[in-house]
Protein backbone atom coordinates (compact mmCIF):
# COMPACT_ATOMS: atom_id res chain seq x y z
CA UNK A 1 0.00 0.00 0.00
CA UNK A 2 1.44 3.37 -1.00
CA UNK A 3 1.92 5.87 1.79
CA UNK A 4 1.34 9.00 -0.28
CA UNK A 5 -1.60 10.62 -2.04
CA UNK A 6 -1.77 11.36 -5.75
CA UNK A 7 -3.92 13.25 -8.22
CA UNK A 8 -4.32 13.20 -12.00
CA UNK A 9 -3.80 16.36 -14.02
CA UNK A 10 -5.06 17.12 -17.51
CA UNK A 11 -2.18 18.06 -19.82
CA UNK A 12 -2.06 19.51 -23.31
CA UNK A 13 1.16 20.24 -25.19
CA UNK A 14 0.49 20.82 -28.86
CA UNK A 15 -1.09 17.69 -30.29
CA UNK A 16 -0.31 15.71 -27.14
CA UNK A 17 -3.35 15.64 -24.88
CA UNK A 18 -3.49 13.35 -21.89
CA UNK A 19 -3.19 13.00 -18.15
CA UNK A 20 -0.36 13.02 -15.66
CA UNK A 21 -0.27 11.34 -12.26
CA UNK A 22 1.36 13.64 -9.69
CA UNK A 23 1.62 13.83 -5.92
CA UNK A 24 -1.41 15.55 -4.41
CA UNK A 25 0.69 18.32 -2.81
CA UNK A 26 4.16 19.22 -1.53
CA UNK A 27 3.44 17.80 1.95
CA UNK A 28 3.64 14.17 0.85
CA UNK A 29 6.46 12.01 2.23
CA UNK A 30 6.98 8.25 2.24
CA UNK A 31 10.37 6.62 2.65
CA UNK A 32 9.90 3.50 4.81
CA UNK A 33 13.06 1.80 3.54
CA UNK A 34 15.21 4.92 3.71
CA UNK A 35 15.86 4.78 -0.05
CA UNK A 36 15.49 8.53 -0.52
CA UNK A 37 17.66 9.29 2.48
CA UNK A 38 20.40 7.03 1.07
CA UNK A 39 20.12 8.93 -2.22
CA UNK A 40 20.62 12.22 -0.36
CA UNK A 41 16.99 13.31 -0.63
CA UNK A 42 15.67 14.83 2.60
CA UNK A 43 12.04 14.77 3.75
CA UNK A 44 11.59 18.46 2.89
CA UNK A 45 12.48 17.89 -0.77
CA UNK A 46 11.10 14.36 -1.17
CA UNK A 47 7.83 15.50 -2.78
CA UNK A 48 9.37 17.91 -5.28
CA UNK A 49 9.88 15.27 -7.96
CA UNK A 50 6.14 14.58 -7.99
CA UNK A 51 4.91 18.09 -8.83
CA UNK A 52 4.15 19.49 -12.28
CA UNK A 53 6.36 22.58 -12.34
CA UNK A 54 6.04 25.51 -14.76
CA UNK A 55 9.61 24.90 -15.94
CA UNK A 56 8.66 21.38 -17.03
CA UNK A 57 5.73 22.76 -19.01
CA UNK A 58 7.96 25.37 -20.66
CA UNK A 59 10.46 22.68 -21.65
CA UNK A 60 7.71 20.37 -22.89
CA UNK A 61 6.48 23.12 -25.23
CA UNK A 62 10.04 23.69 -26.43
CA UNK A 63 10.81 20.04 -27.21
CA UNK A 64 7.69 19.66 -29.34
CA UNK A 65 9.63 21.74 -31.90
CA UNK A 66 12.91 19.85 -31.46
CA UNK A 67 14.48 18.11 -34.45
CA UNK A 68 14.39 14.47 -33.30
CA UNK A 69 15.52 12.67 -36.46
CA UNK A 70 18.43 10.31 -35.74
CA UNK A 71 19.06 12.05 -32.42
CA UNK A 72 19.62 10.32 -29.10
CA UNK A 73 18.00 12.48 -26.40
CA UNK A 74 18.29 12.53 -22.59
CA UNK A 75 16.15 14.36 -20.04
CA UNK A 76 17.98 15.19 -16.80
CA UNK A 77 16.09 15.41 -13.49
CA UNK A 78 12.92 14.30 -15.21
CA UNK A 79 10.63 14.09 -12.15
CA UNK A 80 7.23 13.25 -13.64
CA UNK A 81 8.78 13.36 -17.11
CA UNK A 82 6.38 15.56 -19.07
CA UNK A 83 9.01 16.60 -21.69
CA UNK A 84 10.03 12.94 -22.08
CA UNK A 85 6.39 11.96 -22.58
CA UNK A 86 5.99 14.62 -25.27
CA UNK A 87 9.13 13.36 -27.02
CA UNK A 88 7.97 9.73 -26.74
CA UNK A 89 4.64 10.77 -28.25
CA UNK A 90 6.58 12.28 -31.16
CA UNK A 91 8.53 9.04 -31.67
CA UNK A 92 11.89 10.32 -30.42
CA UNK A 93 14.75 8.20 -29.11
CA UNK A 94 14.31 9.54 -25.57
CA UNK A 95 15.80 8.37 -22.28
CA UNK A 96 14.66 9.92 -18.99
CA UNK A 97 16.82 10.17 -15.88
CA UNK A 98 16.52 11.17 -12.24
CA UNK A 99 17.77 10.02 -8.84
CA UNK A 100 14.52 9.91 -6.88
CA UNK A 101 13.48 6.37 -5.91
CA UNK A 102 9.93 6.85 -7.25
CA UNK A 103 10.63 8.78 -10.42
CA UNK A 104 10.89 5.69 -12.63
CA UNK A 105 7.62 4.21 -11.36
CA UNK A 106 5.75 7.49 -11.91
CA UNK A 107 7.28 7.78 -15.39
CA UNK A 108 6.22 4.22 -16.27
CA UNK A 109 2.72 4.84 -14.92
CA UNK A 110 2.32 8.07 -16.87
CA UNK A 111 3.56 6.52 -20.11
CA UNK A 112 1.03 3.72 -19.70
CA UNK A 113 -1.70 6.17 -18.67
CA UNK A 114 -1.20 7.95 -22.00
CA UNK A 115 -0.94 4.74 -24.04
CA UNK A 116 2.73 5.33 -24.84
CA UNK A 117 5.57 2.79 -24.93
CA UNK A 118 7.68 2.66 -21.78
CA UNK A 119 10.46 5.26 -21.72
CA UNK A 120 13.99 3.98 -20.99
CA UNK A 121 15.16 5.30 -17.62
CA UNK A 122 18.53 5.93 -16.00
CA UNK A 123 19.14 6.38 -12.28
CA UNK A 124 21.67 9.16 -12.81
CA UNK A 125 23.11 10.97 -9.79
CA UNK A 126 24.94 13.99 -11.13
CA UNK A 127 27.91 13.82 -8.78
CA UNK A 128 28.98 10.27 -9.64
CA UNK A 129 30.88 8.94 -12.61
CA UNK A 130 28.45 7.94 -15.35
CA UNK A 131 28.93 4.23 -16.02
CA UNK A 132 28.93 2.90 -19.56
CA UNK A 133 26.53 5.49 -20.92
CA UNK A 134 26.37 5.91 -24.66
CA UNK A 135 26.70 9.65 -25.39
CA UNK A 136 23.72 11.78 -26.36
CA UNK A 137 23.08 14.23 -29.20
CA UNK A 138 20.60 16.30 -27.16
CA UNK A 139 20.33 16.81 -23.40
CA UNK A 140 17.34 18.63 -21.89
CA UNK A 141 16.31 19.61 -18.37
CA UNK A 142 13.86 21.86 -16.55
CA UNK A 143 14.85 24.03 -13.57
CA UNK A 144 17.98 21.99 -12.86
CA UNK A 145 20.18 24.92 -11.77
CA UNK A 146 18.44 25.55 -8.43
CA UNK A 147 21.40 24.79 -6.12
CA UNK A 148 24.77 26.61 -6.14
CA UNK A 149 26.73 23.39 -6.84
CA UNK A 150 24.48 22.21 -9.69
CA UNK A 151 26.37 24.22 -12.30
CA UNK A 152 29.61 22.36 -11.60
CA UNK A 153 27.93 18.95 -11.32
CA UNK A 154 25.98 19.38 -14.54
CA UNK A 155 28.89 20.69 -16.57
CA UNK A 156 31.02 17.74 -15.45
CA UNK A 157 28.21 15.35 -16.35
CA UNK A 158 27.59 16.94 -19.75
CA UNK A 159 31.31 16.77 -20.45
CA UNK A 160 31.13 12.98 -20.00
CA UNK A 161 27.86 12.14 -21.76
CA UNK A 162 27.40 14.67 -24.59
CA UNK A 163 28.59 13.92 -28.10
CA UNK A 164 31.20 16.23 -29.67
CA UNK A 165 28.35 17.77 -31.67
CA UNK A 166 25.58 18.30 -29.15
CA UNK A 167 22.70 20.47 -28.04
CA UNK A 168 21.66 21.23 -24.45
CA UNK A 169 18.32 22.85 -23.68
CA UNK A 170 17.34 24.05 -20.19
CA UNK A 171 14.26 25.91 -19.00
CA UNK A 172 15.31 28.19 -16.15
CA UNK A 173 12.78 30.25 -14.15
CA UNK A 174 15.38 32.87 -13.27
CA UNK A 175 17.84 31.18 -10.96
CA UNK A 176 20.97 33.10 -10.09
CA UNK A 177 23.26 30.24 -11.06
CA UNK A 178 22.74 30.20 -14.81
CA UNK A 179 25.60 32.61 -15.60
CA UNK A 180 28.13 30.36 -13.87
CA UNK A 181 26.78 27.40 -15.80
CA UNK A 182 26.82 29.29 -19.12
CA UNK A 183 30.42 30.38 -18.62
CA UNK A 184 31.47 26.81 -17.89
CA UNK A 185 29.56 25.54 -20.92
CA UNK A 186 31.39 28.09 -23.07
CA UNK A 187 34.64 26.55 -21.86
CA UNK A 188 33.37 23.23 -23.23
CA UNK A 189 32.85 24.83 -26.63
CA UNK A 190 29.09 25.52 -26.41
CA UNK A 191 27.54 28.74 -27.69
CA UNK A 192 24.39 30.04 -26.03
CA UNK A 193 21.10 31.46 -27.26
CA UNK A 194 18.81 32.83 -24.52
CA UNK A 195 15.10 33.35 -25.00
CA UNK A 196 12.96 35.10 -22.40
CA UNK A 197 9.79 33.10 -21.77
CA UNK A 198 6.82 33.35 -19.42
CA UNK A 199 6.58 30.74 -16.67
CA UNK A 200 3.02 31.73 -15.72
CA UNK A 201 -0.02 32.63 -17.81
CA UNK A 202 -0.45 36.03 -16.16
CA UNK A 203 3.25 36.96 -16.28
CA UNK A 204 4.04 40.16 -18.15
CA UNK A 205 7.16 41.02 -20.13
CA UNK A 206 10.03 41.41 -19.62
CA UNK A 207 10.01 37.82 -18.41
CA UNK A 208 12.38 36.65 -15.70
CA UNK A 209 12.59 33.07 -16.98
CA UNK A 210 14.76 31.83 -19.81
CA UNK A 211 14.94 29.01 -22.30
CA UNK A 212 18.67 28.36 -22.56
CA UNK A 213 19.88 26.61 -25.70
CA UNK A 214 23.54 25.60 -25.94
CA UNK A 215 25.07 24.24 -29.13
CA UNK A 216 28.45 22.73 -29.90
CA UNK A 217 29.31 21.91 -33.48
CA UNK A 218 32.00 19.37 -32.68
| β-strand number | 9
Main sheet makeup: 7 strands, mixed
Number of domains: 1
* CATH superfamily label: Vaccinia Virus protein VP39
Which bin fits the share of residues in helices? 25-40%
Describe the oligomeric state of these chains in a short phrase. Answer: single chain
Straight-line distance between termini: 50 Å
Q: What's the overall average pLDDT, rounded?
A: 95
Please give the CATH architecture: 3-Layer(aba) Sandwich
Structural class: alpha/beta
Radius of gyration: 17 Å
Q: Number of helical segments?
A: 6
Q: Which fold name is given in CATH as the topology?
A: Rossmann fold
Q: What does the model show?
A:
The chain has 218 residues and is α/β, with parallel strands linked by helices. It has a single domain, classed as 3-Layer(aba) Sandwich (Rossmann fold). 25% of the residues lie in helices and 29% in strands. The strands form two sheets. It has a seven-stranded mixed beta sheet with strand order 5-4-3-6-7-9-8, sandwiched between helices. Helix 3 (82-89) links the parallel strand 3 and strand 4. The longest helix is centred in the C-terminal third of the chain and has 12 residues, at 150-161.
Outline the fold blueprint.
Elements lengths: L5 E8 L2 E8 L11 H4 L15 H10 L8 E5 L5 H8 L3 E6 L4 H11 L7 E3 L12 E7 L7 H12 E11 L5 H10 L3 E7 L11 E9 L1
Parallel strand pairs: 3-4, 3-6, 4-5, 6-7
Antiparallel strand pairs: 1-2, 7-9, 8-9
Amino acid sequence: MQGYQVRKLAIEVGAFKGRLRALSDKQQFFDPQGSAAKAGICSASWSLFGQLWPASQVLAKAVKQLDIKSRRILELGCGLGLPSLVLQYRGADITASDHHPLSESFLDYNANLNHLPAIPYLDLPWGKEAKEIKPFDVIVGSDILYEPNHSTLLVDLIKRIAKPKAKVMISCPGRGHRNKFSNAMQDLGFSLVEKRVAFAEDEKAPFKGRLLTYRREG
